[in-house]
Amino acid sequence: MASNVSELTTYMAYLEGEWKKSSSGETIAIQSPYLRQTIGYVQAVTQDEVDDAITAAHNAQKEWAGLSLSARGEYLDRWADELVKNSEEIAQAIMQEVGKGFKDAQKEVVRTADLIRYTVQEALHMHGESLRGDGFPGGDQKKIGIVERAPLGVVLAIAPFNYPVNLAASKIAPALMVGNAVIFKPATQGSISGIKMIEALDKTGLPKGLLSLTTGRGSVIGDYLVEHKGINMISFTGGSSTGRHLSKQTTMIPLVLELGGKDPAIVCDDADLDVAVSSIMNGAFSYSGQRCTAIKRVLVNERVADELVSRLKAKVEKLTVGSPEVDSTIVPLIDDKSADFVQGLIDDALAKNATLVTGNKRENNLIYPTLLDNVTEDMDVAWIEPFGPVLPVIRVKSDDEAIEIANKSEFGLQASVFTQDIDRALAVARQVEAGTVQINGRTERGPDHFPFLGVKASGMGVQGIHHSLLSMSRERVTVLNLK
Ligand code: G3H
């Protein structure tokens, strides 16, 4: 599956069930964010190869959809087993390629295996419905509607760098389980992890052509894939600007988008500050804040702001900073451009008189955790998603003001509210425009069987295992007209 070139591996693309070199003769160098060097090469797949992969996918899909649910599930269960068996190697790839701490990378692989197994079980336990014609005024009792789920055809799964295995499998597994074929396009940084994950799938003996993995340049195959007439559904996780672009490019095909966020932690004046501090720390800084669901701003009642900020400061200064190989919480960002972007947000806030509580130190793409207080609405960091370890604190006078600032954001992924009064928590939760509001907990996608969605610029459609099975299939209605 791989060949050595100058001690580095050149990975093959997985096209039509074979590991192949691209006919382009070109490869893409994959950089490690913390080793700051090339760690391998992946194939730069061509548009012709995309065409062939999609044709093969359609051919294989017909037979696949004819298999029983349990037969499809057996392949997926074997995939989960293979992932667990190879979890060390896959976690190593994730760590090197996207700079995620090794233990977190291992957790990602195990979480993925659990997700796949749950997807199988969920699909096995989903059932259709039947309707009586005479349920409608003037209806005929001899008419019976049978509603089942049917696959859509070929699903394009586009995964981000930050969960190169989990957020790929959370699209691939439901797509396959409901009878689709898949074209999988990993993020460039994330391709090697994606390849390792598909090597595990390939070991299950999956029918040839049912899934192809197209690594390549976005400029060559990105738009081409998305606009391809052979694609019947797209599931994308990534930035909001790309999501917007996708929704303009596609016509008349279902699209599920998981995009950016600016998740607020609303801290009321009666909050248990121990709970708030530990949730905010974990929510804001794990994996250097490179999570769509990271806490990206704190809206704290001014009566408890000094106390909260001083407790956060103490914790931020204890965060481990350095290498993912020793499981540091703060690791180098995915690339230098991302670090420049985060630094720009910090610089802008400080120029506009935010208070630097701690941080604002940088070594290449390693940004030290930075806590900013007295952030005001004229500062970019109040609104823009950094995808890095900077946490702005905005002081508010009331819950209403917190809700107003929370909702002024273009994003609406998740939010947290910290209070010991459940009525107050629910009142805030019901007014915040977000897919999910966490009461006294950090913002996060899991557990993976919960519905997961963003509103406004944070997404379209719903994920989570059950909803992904629904969005990757359609109703098939058959009507019995009895004599
Ligand atoms: O980055 C986007 C992910 O969906 C976040 O997942 O909340 O499990 O870290 P997570």
Automatic annotation (TrEMBL):
Pfam families: Aldedh. Gene3D superfamilies: Aldehyde Dehydrogenase, Chain A, domain 1 (3.40.605.10), Aldehyde Dehydrogenase, Chain A, domain 2 (3.40.309.10). The active site is at E258. SUPFAM superfamilies: ALDH-like (SSF53720). InterPro entries: Ald_DH/histidinol_DH (IPR016161), Ald_DH_C (IPR016163), Ald_DH_CS_CYS (IPR016160), Ald_DH_CS_GLU (IPR029510), Ald_DH_N (IPR016162), Aldehyde_DH_dom (IPR015590), ALDH-related_metabolic_enz (IPR051020). Residues 19-474 form the Aldehyde dehydrogenase domain. CDD domains: ALDH_F11_NP-GAPDH (cd07082). GO terms for molecular function: lactaldehyde dehydrogenase (NAD+) activity. Keywords: NADP, Oxidoreductase. Belongs to the aldehyde dehydrogenase family. This is Glyceraldehyde-3-phosphate dehydrogenase. It comes from Sporolactobacillus laevolacticus DSM 442.
